[in-house]
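We were asked to recover a plausible sequence for a given structure. The inputs and outputs are reproduced exactly as logged, with field labels preserved.

PROBLEM: sequence recovery
POSITIONS: 203
GIVEN STRUCTURE:
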């Protein structure tokens, strides 16, 4: 196992080691350990989903989200941008749904709403990008919403076999209980291998 500059446990020096670390972390309920083994693109996708669930949870969930951001060193600016974009999205949605006989007005309202949605997407990306320790931040979000973005049984009781490495990428086969079988990807960055959950093995 390799550790980062801040002492945060990271993934392994081989795909097999990384998978073993991720499995052991999940089996002991260690979200930070699991997410430290995942590729950053996966983490951002999981984090995006978690933020969306906070947004849908109302004012109380929003306050909890802001608190998690503060605890994990996320700068105030992207968080403020997220709040602003949500407020503008709500306003432009109401306007877009309002009846109007003028097609030009309808098109303009739709265009404005699309801009506000894009601003929201940009704010989410900025929040995830600015988190000093992305695995810990995403783990905290997942824990706060009670899980759901990733199965709590992920990797449990599984082994990885038939790993084939091609440069900085690799593919293997996850095998688990009851005949479970599924391809799993890996990517190497700075000498460390990370699991890539999402994707399709090249043919």
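RECOVERED SEQUENCE:
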């Amino acid at each position: 196992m390799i550790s980062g500059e801040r002492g945060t446990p990271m993934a392994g020096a081989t795909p097999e080691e990384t998978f073993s670390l991720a499995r052991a972390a999940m089996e002991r309920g260690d979200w930070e350990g699991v997410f430290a083994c995942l590729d950053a693109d996966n983490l951002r996708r999981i984090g995006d989903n978690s933020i969306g669930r906070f947004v849908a949870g109302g004012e109380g969930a929003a306050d909890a989200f802001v608190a998690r951001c503060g605890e994990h060193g996320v700068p105030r600016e992207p968080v403020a941008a997220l709040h602003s974009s949500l407020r503008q999205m709500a306003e432009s949605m109401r306007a877009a749904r309002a009846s109007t006989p003028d097609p030009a007005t309808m098109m303009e309202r739709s265009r404005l709403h699309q801009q506000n949605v894009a601003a929201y997407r940009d704010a989410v990306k900025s929040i995830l990008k600015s988190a000093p320790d992305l695995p810990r931040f995403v783990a905290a979000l997942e824990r706060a919403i009670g899980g759901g973005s990733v199965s709590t049984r992920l990797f449990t009781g599984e082994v990885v076999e038939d790993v084939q490495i091609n440069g900085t990428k690799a593919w293997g086969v996850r095998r688990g209980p009851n005949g479970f079988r599924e391809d799993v990807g890996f990517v190497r960055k700075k000498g460390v291998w990370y699991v890539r959950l999402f994707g399709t093995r090249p043919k």
